[in-house]
Amino acid sequence: MRGLYRCASAVIALLVLGCAGGDTSKQGSSTFGGPTGATATPATNSGLDDTDPLETSGGQGGSGTGGGSGVDPGSSGDPSAGEAVCGDGVLQGAESCDGKDLGAMTCGDFGFAQGMLICDAQCNLVTDGCRSCGDGMLAASELCDGNSLGGETCQSQGFGGGTLLCDAECAGYDTSTCTPLASCGDGVRNGGEACDGNDLGGASCASVGFDVGQLACTASCTHNTAQCEFLNCGSQGDFCLFDETDPQGSCCDAGVGGNVLGICALLVCQ
Asked: With the CA atoms of 117, 121, 123 and 125 taken in that order, what torsion angle do they form, in degrees rounded to the nearest 10?
């Protein structure tokens, strides 16, 4: 009996020790059931599961196909960061201009007094339309400037001699000091004469750049365009918008500007 008692006491002692030691795998648990330190700083992997290769292979700025900037490869990203496209009408990148978009640039930025900047097909600014009348330098948009007459003389203008001048606007020649040809006044257009009396050589207001009017000849045998004029209407072949309530629309009258009918038909003046 004494031996049996000792065995029973030993078994009870082992059981008590086992319960007191508990399950060591659960040590560190909070008494509220939540994990200890739940308010710690989030991990640097932004919440990705490190055990999932699909989430970690793209990496944060790593070498994976999803790494780098983190922008979706299928997205366009920031459009302002794209390359400039010359011809789209939008000034961007290294372009000096694009179509009508010249930024804030004017002829004044290039030292000219007036005129209009132009943008070429390569998106570069062109100053051919700028000018400074009176500086004596012949610009592309000037007919003359001071003594710079572009090689023109009184003789090339149909006179016999004299000194050709430039007008104050650099837009025309001043022939007031030119002298007529010796033959001027005989009623026959010859030599360098533009006309002589009623002999206009077939010229008209339209042939010298006007719309309508009566061309005449001066005493110096040059064209007198005082009776010629421009019209704010469409000549034959000019674009127009048809209006059934106004067949003529923006077209000139019949017989004016080459129009036969003086109406807008098929979007052109006729």
From this structure: -20
User: How far apart are alpha carbons 12 and 109 in whole angstroms?
Assistant: 104
Whether the Cβ atoms of residue 133 and residue 170 lie closer than 8 Å to each other: yes
Dihedral of alpha carbons 232, 238, 241, 242, sign: positive
What distance separates the 2 farthest-apart alpha carbons in the chain? 169
Contact 89, 79 (CB under 8 A): no
What residues contact 183, with CB distance under 8 A and at least 6 apart? 190, 191, 193, 196
- What confidence tens digit (pLDDT) does each residue in 219-252 have? 988 899 999 987 788 888 888 888 888 888 888 8
Closest CA to 173 of 207, 143, 202, 195: 143
Asked whether the whole model's pTM tops 0.70, one would answer no
